[in-house]
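Subject: Protein record for review, amino acid sequence with backbone structure tokens
Concerning: The relation between a protein's sequence and the shape of its backbone.
How to read it: Take the token row as a discrete description of the fold.
Enclosed: The protein record, placed directly beneath this head.
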Amino acid sequence: MNRLGAREENILNFIIRDYVRNASPISSGRIFESKTFRLSPATIRNAMLELDDEGYLEQPYTSSGRIPTDKAYRYFVDNLMTHKGPSRNEKMVLEDLVSEVRERHEMLFENFARLLADEVGLFCGIASFNGEPRIEAYGLEKVFSEPEFYDRNLTVEFSRLVDNIDKVAEKFLEDSFDDRPSVFIGGENQFHDAKEFSSVAMKFSDDEFGNCIIFSIGPKRMNYEKVSSLLNFVVKDMIG
């Protein structure tokens, strides 16, 4: 995917981050009023029209604002997302958890899955494949509180996905990942019933539990930076 011009890229970056925070379509007026850019309203509108024409933005229903498309999220993940560690507070929470359960290894996966779900507000899980598959997953209530799930059809689709979480985890294991979290947006997901969602997953090996997958699934409007950094930190600094 070719890089956008600096102006369009900066505006797209603003739109995605604002939409992740607020779940509301973004208008040119909203961008202008933020005083983030020294651009006229007309210039902002023209840039948004270009992004619209190139498939990075779409208009939901009759709203005057725009929201990111799958193409926009992919551009963000590949070009704009920063790769940084978790915050100081997040590290402290994770480190306290490890110290509490280190002597009870069998509880480690359960607690990590629960903690990740709490921290990122999404459906998170850890699956191990060493003999009998084992899956620990939490966060369904949290993810259903997101505004996307006011749409009953999405709620049904996500519930169906959760019902088949064992197959989802196996599909993650089949995919070949780099030594970092992998992001799958919408139709990039390889499993059925996930075309309207995004997932972030990372493989690792554990001496006791064998080949493992840690993952998070939720709306495409997820905080990819935070989810990726937490998964990476858990695997490399906590479990590894």
